[in-house]
Amino acid sequence: MMFGSINSSGAIIDVTKHGEASDILLPNQIERVQKVAVDIGGSLAKVVYLTSGPRSQGGRLHFAAFETDNVEKCVAFIRTLLDTDNTEEPVIMATGGGAHRFRDLLNKELGVEIRVEDEMESLTAGLNFLIREVADEVFTYSEDRPMQFVDAAADMFPYMLVNIGSGVSILKVTGEDEFERISGTSLGGGTLWGLLNLLTGVRSFDAMLEMTKTGDNAKVDMMVGDIYGTNYGRIGLKASNIASSMGGVYRKTLDKHFDDSDIARSLLYMVSNNIGQIAYLNAQLHGIRHIYFGGYFIRGHPLTMHTLSYAINFWSKGEMRALFLRHEGFLGATGAFFIGERMKTVTPALELAPDVTADAKDAEPLKRRARAYSFTENFSIAGAIADDAIGSLGMLDREPSKLEPLPQLVNTAAHPYTPDTVDLTHEPRQQEYWISAMERNTNGLLDLADSGALPGCEDPESRQRLSRFVSLYLKHLHRLRDRPLAYGAMSVRALLGLREQCLHEVGLEDIFAGVKQHETQAALDALPMLLRETDAMDKDKKPHVLLQNVLAGNMFDWGATALRGALAEGSLDLDKARDQITWRPEFDNGTDFVKRIRTHQYKHAVVFVDNSGADVCLGVLPFVRFLLQRGTRVVLAANSRPALNDVTERELIDIVRRAGLIDSAFQTNLLSVCGTGSSGPCLDMRKLDARLVQATRTVDLVVIVGMGRAIHSNYFARFTCDSLKLAVFKNQMAADAAHAQIYDALCKYEQR
Amino acid sequence: MESSSDKNMGVPDEHPLVSFIRNRTLHKGKSLPDGWKSTVFSRPGKDSKEHMFRALIIPTSDIEQLMASVETQKSHASGKIRLAATGGGAHKYKDELERRLNVQLIIVKELEATVHGLLVDSEQSVETQMLLCNVGTGVSLATVDKQGEVERVSGSGIGGATFWGLVKRLTQFSNFNEAIVAAHKAGVLGKADTLVEDIYGRETSKEIGLAPDLVAGFLGKLDSDNLTDADISAALLRMFASNLGQLAVFQARLLGVSAVWFAGGFVQSASSEDNAAEIIQNAIAEAMSFWSAGRLQAQFPRNAALLGAMGAIHVTINQER
């Protein structure tokens, strides 16, 4: 059966399709393919494969889709994957109806072992993985509120999966490996296709869905109003409700003129409504509230999702909600991939991350391996399952370690945590501002490099990479302007994170490395003098000044355009910077902190640091020294990978070592440095490197420094211990959003 | 759509409408206009006396003929009688019927009338928990509580008109019964559907324990070249009946009801010259049995076409008391 023409070759990578920088985007050029899984359905063949290489040392999952009618194309694609001579294990995991049918073909063509996995088991394994690991994977949908992302990982089970392909399967999932097929219906995607094909002559499912957009079902359906004239309120039917799908086409008295698009819309409604109703009945019978819809039928098509949502909401009187997935279509292939991982006895492609949480070590059976590490979605190369799909998919980068929440983070039903202070999705003005700001900044990058302001980026190779980055990132920004929800909820954190992903993707690991080095040297040179000055201060005055210097240091920031001039001059005058800051009581209760530490000694503090140079050396380190001298253990948490001019874990270790040579107070085992696991200028406190989480178990003071981590993200974060958020509103829009003025201090001390 | 009980029997100045019906139902086999049918039967009433029903069934399009006949015999001796009425046409013809026939229409809501009609016809009380699937243009699923209150608990837009609308668009059949009978006689099931074997291949289906001829997707092979109209009609009927059965079984399980009745225009097809009704009822019964794994059976009323009229009378009389 032919279901339609989807981006047939290569699939899902529509960035490539549109001819964009394809030279850097070929998936297997440098990366080594480690493992392949394929899900051959009635209409599409979906491929999930893992690579590792310079850009993704932890491993990277890619997603691609092909028409099943063109299965040769899919086989050819898999062959190129395997041809990268280094595929470690010539076993391909396969699932889906076609896996059986094409097993021999694959075996003959590829000469590798094909291991066929149960379809339902693969679906649930894939779904469990995606819910748990992928941010903004799950969303609700309605025409008024498209794509409301839901954090479904916390309270996952039980749930129901309604998988709509040619037919419909309904699974009840009660645990990680516990599921049963409770029902289904054969009135599904195949029915819609069969009917529309014969009624309209259109053969492509895509084209059918396209037709539904302009159709008016009231022209072919018998509406409640056609029978009763007006609203038939008593039985809960509105005049605009459908009394009978396609029931109006033969009633001459209704005298309706209709065309193919009207039929297409009517039948889409008919099938979707019916599936929604059967899903509701099953959920109700099994006492389930969360209903996931997946499968080829949906593929991000807005009208379909709206109808399914409407049906669930209508029948359950708002008690249940329909949930959709950005990776729908890839559940089976993803699941088969991880089932393959579980079964391995030797060298799994994805090894168990060094497990620092000792308590989990023995408890985790072999089959749980697939969850022992975390993934971050990388949108630098993004695609979509269908041309009009509402969401896009990135690649999934495996983090070097498992990411876990900060132990002190409050994230409960009463106080849910969200890393983003402003959801730009619902703030068109701010959305426009930030996209424009990113565009300006990106456009200025080449000039900046040409002016010599980015030492280390002058060579032609780097220059070329930089221009690739500029075109890649601008293209993403352009897409986000059109479809703000394409990559999940839009936030400053997401935009900045995507920027770093694009830089890394073109091979620019750290364009500010030279700048940072230069600034850090200058700052360390000034450190001895600063320490002498503050040590000479009055005992009561000193803590105030140290606290204020953290903010003054944070003023020196390449990330803030406003300060770039001063920095370029090499001026590191903390006093001058401090004078630029306004201290308002609404945003500054630093005196409360100073009062508190007069009588209270914190045992263990974690300090999330921001920029290199003056910020960390002259602002943070003297403050940390003050804590250390009072006997407080301090963990300095820095980015694991470069982002803007933020100091990285590796750089910070070096800085602390050098500071120790300047002042012995830094040579203490009370002080340690740990990576956050993050590679962006903002921070999601739910996703920290497990080593950091282990090192912060006894922390009773959380300190967060800088605009990215304390204003754009975590502004509203609550902790079970005391916390201190230190930053300067260096950006007009961020200041406006908080009703602050530019260069206002944020010195927010919260006592628990 | 209209009916009368034998309440007025024996009254000398009988209303002409009552006489009209009596005259045409007195003798079995009395010749009636084309498409007209008559039947007489009795059911126990609340007072446990047998109540006799005289029913005359005519096409709605002949209502003008009926009005014209009764109008001429208008007797001044009889007063205005009350006429229990239901169905979409009750509203449409209310004014005309009242003006021309010297009657006062008491309109009962269709679903309420049908449910109560079923109770009378099947000699059940409201104490018996049941689910009625009324399959007309669309589908309504209704229950009745112990106070006689009828509730539409669910419904579907995939109804009789959907089936017929699709048959009409996809085949050359000129009437409903023809399509049903042909589906039964000449339709080959599975030709128009995507079967398990179409997805997995015949051998693999067996290997993984699925019946190769199980339908995976209804109508998924409507693009096949060798389909006859009968094949298409058969596939549509099976899809429609299966969906109906599934909705009914799940709804019955939700309500904890074990008696599931089917009524409405689709179940009781208009003409009895062929076995269309039986074919449809068998299809529904099979679907019910499939979805309930044999635990629930589809039940069909004896006088399916008359439930609305019987119920309308029942409800109206109860209101009088």
Brief overview, please?
The complex is a heterodimer of chains A (752) and B (321). Chain A is of the alpha/beta class.
Provide an overview of this structure:
The complex is a heterodimer of chains A (752) and B (321). Chain A is α/β, with parallel strands linked by helices and 752 residues long. Helices cover 40% and strands 18% of the residues of chain A. Chain A contains 27 helices and 24 strands. In chain A, helix 7 (189-200) runs antiparallel to helix 10 (260-286) and helix 19 (541-554) crosses helix 21 (574-580). The longest helix of chain A is centred in the middle third of the chain and has 27 residues, at 260-286. The two termini of chain B are 24 Å apart. Chain B is globular, with a radius of gyration of 22 Å. Chains A and B meet through helix 4, helix 7, strand 12 and helix 10 of A and strand 8, helix 5, helix 7, strand 10 and helix 9 of B.
What's the number of extended β-strand segments of chain B? 12
- Unreliable residue runs of chain A: 1-29, 231-237, 351-371
> What is the subunit organization of this protein?
heterodimer
Strand order of the largest sheet of chain A: 5-4-1-2-3-16-15
- Coarse shape of chain A: elongated
Label the overall shape of chain B. globular
* SSE run of chain B: EHEEHEHEHEEEHHEHHEHEHEH
The profile of the biggest β sheet of chain A is: 7 strands, mixed
Determine the fraction of residues in helical runs of chain A and give it as a percent range: 40-55%
Strand composition percent of chain B: 15-25%
Fold topology:
The complex is a heterodimer of chains A (752) and B (321).
Chain A: H1 14-17, H2 22-25, E1 32-40, E2 44-53, E3 56-67, H3 71-82, E4 91-95, H4 97-101, H5 103-110, E5 113-116, H6 119-133, E6 138-140, E7 148-150, E8 159-164, E9 168-175, E10 178-185, H7 189-200, H8 205-212, E11 222-223, H9 224-228, E12 242-244, H10 260-286, E13 290-294, H11 302-315, E14 321-325, H12 331-343, H13 358-363, E15 375-383, E16 393-398, E17 403-404, H14 428-443, H15 445-450, H16 460-482, H17 492-505, H18 513-535, H19 541-554, H20 561-568, H21 574-580, H22 590-599, E18 604-608, H23 614-629, E19 633-638, H24 649-662, E20 671-675, E21 688-689, H25 690-695, E22 701-705, H26 707-712, E23 722-728, H27 732-737, E24 745-750
Parallel strand pairs in A: 1-4, 4-5, 8-13, 13-14, 18-19, 18-22, 19-20, 22-23
Antiparallel strand pairs in A: 1-2, 2-3, 3-16, 6-7, 6-14, 8-9, 9-10, 11-12, 15-16, 17-21, 23-24
Chain B: E1 4-5, H1 16-25, E2 37-44, E3 50-57, H2 63-72, E4 81-85, H3 88-101, E5 103-107, H4 110-121, E6 130-135, E7 139-144, E8 150-156, H5 160-170, H6 176-186, E9 194-195, H7 196-200, H8 202-207, E10 215-217, H9 229-255, E11 259-263, H10 276-291, E12 298-299, H11 307-320
Parallel strand pairs in B: 4-5, 6-11, 11-12
Antiparallel strand pairs in B: 1-3, 2-3, 6-7, 7-8, 9-10
Helix pairs in contact in B: 4-11, 5-9, 6-9, 6-10, 9-10
